[in-house]
Structures are given as C-alpha cells and as structure tokens.
Amino acid sequence: MEFHKLSALEIAEGVKKGSWTASEVLSAHLDRIKKIDGQINSVVTLSEERAYSDARETDKAVAEGRDPGPLAGVPFLVKDNFCTDGIRTTCCSKMLSDWIPDYDATAVKRMKDAGAVLMGKTNMDEFAMGSTTESSIFGPTLNPRDFNRVPGGSSGGSAAAVAAGFCPIALGSDTGGSVRQPSAFCGVQGMKPSYGQISRYGIVAYASSLDQVGPITRNISDMAAVLGILAGPDPNDTTCDAYERPSFPQAAVEAIKGKKIAVLTGYDAESMDSPLIEAIEKAVGYCRSAGAEIVEAKLPITMKHAVACYYMVALGDASSKLACFDGMRYGHHSDGRSLVEMYKRSRNQGFGKEVRKRILIGTCILTRGYYENYYVPATKVRQMIADEYAELFKSVDSLICPISPALPYKKGLVEEDPVRMYLGDAFSSIANLAGLPSISLNLGFTEEGLPTNVQLMGPRFGDAGLLALAHAIENKAGSPPIADIEKKGGCRE
C-alpha cells in the first residue's frame, strides 16, 4: 500500500475501519523519510520510539472499540520552533541546539489528542527569520520540485516534507508569509488562519502580534479538518479569541455561487513572473464558472507601505523577544572575562548572520528618536492597512491576489540579492499586519515543473468562507501531486 499518496482523512478512515493499522502507516512514512530525505534535508529530528508508542495506542483504541480521534493514525511533522515534550526544539539555531522542552505546544497537543502521530521536527530558517530555509544550523532544505531552488521559508522544511510525501500534514508558523510562501514554492496548500484563531502557546515567538500557527496539506479537505481541530480558545494564550466557531470541514464544501470576490489591481504586474499572473486569471475563471461575481479592488495604502510597515513592526518585536537569549538565562553560553563580554560572545556565537542583522535593525528601530520616527508611525500605518481591508470586506466576501511576485528562487538569493528576498513579502505580509485569514493555493505547474499559485484572503474570522472558496477552486484545478523525487529529483531532469 502506498500510504504516502493517501490524504490525512483517507488514512484516518482506513485506521478506524481496520483496513490498516496506525503502526503500518507510521512505518511506511518513516521508511520514506529515511530513504529520501537525505536528498532534500527537510526533517531535522525524528522521534521514532515515541511515535511508535502513540501509533500502538491508536491501534489498541481501535481494537477495543474506542474512538481513536478524527485524525487516527495520521503521521505529522511540526516546525522546529514548536515546543515538543521530550523532543529537542532548536529553532534551527546554535542558540538552542541542546534545548529539550518538558511540554507540548497547544497546537501539538491538540493534534495528538485528535489521534495524529508526531514523527518529528522540520527544518526552518533560524528563528523563523528568512524566506529560503538556508540559514539553519542543520544546513539548507532543497525544493523537492527542483533541487536547484529553495523551498521558501521560514517553514520550508514543513512544506517540503508534505510535497515529498513524508506526511500528509505539517504545521508551521507564519509571521509574514512563512507558511504560505513555502507552500507556494513547494506546490502544496498552506494557510495562515485569522490572528487569534489558533493558540500560539508553546511556539518560540518571532513577533507575537504577527505570529500564527498554520497547517500545510496537499488538499483543502485535510486543511479544513486540521483547522477544526486546532482552532479554539486557550487559557494559555489570551490573544486566542473565544468566539463561537463554525464547523470548518462542513463550511469548506459550501458553494460560492453568488459570492462577490475581488481581484487585486494597482500593483506592478510586469515585475511578476508571468505564470503567476496566468494563475490569477485561471483562479478568476474558476470562480466565475462556479457562479461567483468578480470585481476589481485597489488598496493604495497597502501596496505602498506594507513591506516597510511589516519590517518595522516585526524587527522591533523580534529585538525585544530575543533579548532573553543572553547566554545567562537562556540559550548558548560562552565564557568571557566580564559579564558584557560573556553576553557579546554568547549572542555572537549563538545567533547566525541573518538573525544578528535583524536584531540590530530592530534594536535601532526601538531606540530614542528612531522609535518616534519609525516604529510609532509603522503602528499607525498598520492600523490604516487593517482599516483599508475592513472597508473592502464590507462589500466583498474574499480577495484574490498574488502570494509572491516570483516563482521559487534559485539557491543563494540571500547572499546575492537580499533586498529582493525582503520585497518578496509584499503580498504575504499583508494578512499578518491586518490579522486576516489567508490561503496559498496551488494552481498547477509550469512546463519546467515549477508550482504556480494564488493567495486567497478573507475578513477577520472569515476562515470558513475562505476554505469554501479554496475548495471550489481546487475542485476545478485539482490538488497537487507528490513530488516525484525518487525518479528524477523533483519535477525536472
């Protein structure tokens, strides 16, 4: 049985019916990781013993006639900034290279409680600061669709693992596109839910006002199922809203006939790779054929200020968040002749180049003079962006726009053209600034085998309607296949 080709819901159904066991499913996926991952480096830690123990518990529940949970026996992976009880959590940084938490992040716990089996942790940009997954202490992750290209970031390991068939579900964190952009680059489906939809408890923070947990899957039905499990209030996270949530799996299959969907205009389309413009046109055509009304939308404040606003807010937050890693209280320790020297050595040795750069910029932003001239105006612009979207969603149900201006980058962009990498967040960071739900949806592949995609956005806590739109488009476009890396190293010879 080729378990790696099954969806999460298909696996769970088979386990519940006794068609196969959770242990069999786990063994097949672990074998695939061991056989293939050496080519792409998406998984940094495996927890085999604990995973087999959890799988056996699921099999025992089935045998005894007990409910094993909606994700019974489904193997999953999580980004290495999620706390996992007894399993190292490094953020792919030397600073935390030997840290083993004694508790699970709420999202991890809820997946386990639903019967899913945690196999291990995935590669990422150090402390989630990057868009290529090249800054990890474990080495870079390669794109399973094309080994000459990056998988995106910072949740590149999670997206690559799903694309490679190592698991049907992986979890990532999204601060400015870190779930959606790698999902787009690797040719899978990724979602950043509304801010406050899912608890952030137990996730090492980058920028708390922007961070959100997001599922990565190969189809929207699995995504809706995962969101239904993860969403909900948590006493450990006061930003996790306690509103009455709908059934996300049920909402995902609702029709979009009569819905009004806006298409973003007013950006420089000539600067975008043409297959991505074609993907937007294709998505619009699918929506029309499903009975939706299409209108145009311009968002001048967002298009002009989003990138600058995002980096002001994110780096200022990151600077303060990472201040605790000083080698004394937390993190890598280096000796010094004085306390100041110890701090300097610990942080210089513990943090990589990109993280140090962002901390320095963030610290500068928060100093007197710069704070009033940069950080404070950025918070005001952020509110203006949120207001611009709130006004838009008074008259439309959803928005279609790009997720990235480019197809997957070739390796080495961080060093060759870092500004281009930062500007790549122009479309993805918007949802984080405004707290909106957003889905990166695969729309097929180019002749060279590179994934094309669109971004779908909805109003705050309009996640259910967004899933319905994504499902309707996916029904027309089809869900993406697993990357054929065993045969030809991705989709290219």
Order of helices and strands: HHEHEHEHEHEEHHEHEHHHHEHHHEEHH
Number of strands: 11
Indicate the CATH topology.
Amidase signature (AS) enzymes
- By CATH, the superfamily comes out as Amidase signature (AS) domain
Name the descriptors:
Amidase signature (AS) enzymes; eleven-stranded mixed sheet; 493 residues; disordered C terminus; 11 strands; alpha/beta
Could you characterize the architecture of this molecule?
This protein has 493 residues and is of the alpha/beta class. Strands 1-3-2-4-6-5-10-11-9-7-8 form an 11-stranded mixed β-sheet, with helices on both faces. The chain has a single domain, classed as Alpha-Beta Complex (Amidase signature (AS) enzymes), CATH 3.90.1300.10. The protein starts with 7 loop residues before the first helix and ends in a 5-residue tail after the last helix. β10 and β11 (451-457) form a beta hairpin. α10 (300-321) packs across α12 (353-365). It contains 18 helices and 11 strands.
